Amino acid sequence: MGCKTCSSGGGKPNGCQTNGTCSTSGCNKLEVYDWLANIDLPGGQQAYDILEVRFKNSRKDFFRNAQKLNIQVGDIVVIDASSGFDVGVVSIVGELAKIQVSKKKNDFKPLEARKILRIADQKDIDLWIKARSKEKELMYKARTLALNIGLEMKISDVEYQGDMSKAIFYYTAEGRVDFRQLIKDMAGEFRIRIEMKQIGSRQESSRLGGIGSCGRELCCSTWLTDFRSVSTSAARYQQLSLNPQKLAGQCGKLKCCLNFELDAYLESLKTFPKKEIKLKTLKGDAYHVKTDVFKGTMWYAFRGESELYPMTPKRVKEIIESNKNGKKPSDLKDYQIQETVVEEEVGYSNVVGQDSVSRFEKSFKKPKKKNFKRKKRPNKNKE
User: Which long-range contacts (CB under 8 A, 24 or more apart) does 14-21 make?
Assistant: First the structure.
């Protein structure tokens, strides 16, 4: 795990101090379990030379182990960058890295991938720690420079390159931002190369992390890698109230977890008739009110009445089929679900005197003082 060689806190995570069992503060963010680690390769087959390296927060990339170094998961390595070098933590090796490459990058060319230069020594790690410690101060100064110019943008995160020769500034903005003057000011102030990257609200939450309304860490910052669009129809299919305050996550967009159970709802709703169809009876037309997918129940009501008629999808289809044949049932009471109420007999049992109302009276009463009459001792002097 990454916390064994973590550069912060002497090998302990900054958050809960549980020595590698949490994903707080980026120690194990987007961690991958290598389920092929204990499986040996067939005889004569060489190990896959492409490794996945994790950088700050959720940024990952693939690099080639051209020198055939003995690298394991959790090792800190120095990789070749566009100018200079960068430092990261190895997250995937071996055959699992081959699966990840085919899954994430279809046009990946191994020979064109950047190389892993060496395993990081103490000098590289010290420089890496120094770069991480200066990122927050650098972000505050960059925000001040952006406010002085009057740019409508929010710099949410800064990532130093391992050799401290370059810094990537991640920002969010509503529209296009002309930050040419800002880059000139930051280059003159910080004396480093500047790279600006615009990210969306979901990517910003993924990088910063946090706790969701469910009480757990955000899915986007722990395991979710692809951000699919979430529409309000996902909430409608799941019979959720369209309340923006409850449906929106910390990023201000609709929660990604709305898509998790959507396929199961859509599959179940195939067995339900369309709710737009009216049920024609001799009493009048009945309209659909609500549906409970888990119970398999649909509620209908007549216009102007408050009474609801619960029915199974099978019974609703029977009424629709009879309407197509020109027949109308007299009422919906013959088709609704008959709820059987089971009355439970409440027994009586004396549980160690707890049913007594006056069980505490004795404990609150003061004990009466007993009058001890002293016995008269015989006077020996009189004898």
Answer: none
Give strand ranges (E) for 122-247.
154-160, 166-172, 193-198
- Domains in the chain, ordered, with CATH? 32-129 (no CATH), 134-203 (3.30.300.20), 273-352 (no CATH)
Alpha carbon distance 150, 179 (integer Å): 10
For residue 119, which amino acid is it? I
**SS3 call for 182:** helix
* φ, ψ (nearest 5 deg) of residue 203: -65, -35
List the beta bridge partners of residue 298.
Answer: 291, 311
| Full pLDDT tens readout for the chain, 383 residues | 344 444 444 444 444 444 444 444 444 566 777 777 777 777 777 888 899 998 987 788 999 998 888 888 889 999 998 888 999 999 888 888 888 888 888 788 888 889 999 999 999 999 999 999 999 999 999 999 999 998 989 999 999 998 899 999 999 998 888 888 999 999 999 999 999 999 888 888 888 888 988 888 888 888 887 788 888 889 988 888 888 888 998 888 899 999 998 998 999 888 899 888 999 998 889 999 888 888 889 999 998 888 898 999 999 999 999 999 988 888 888 888 876 656 666 666 665 555 566 666 666 556 666 665 666 666 655 54
From CA 87, how far away is CA 81, in angstroms rounded? 9
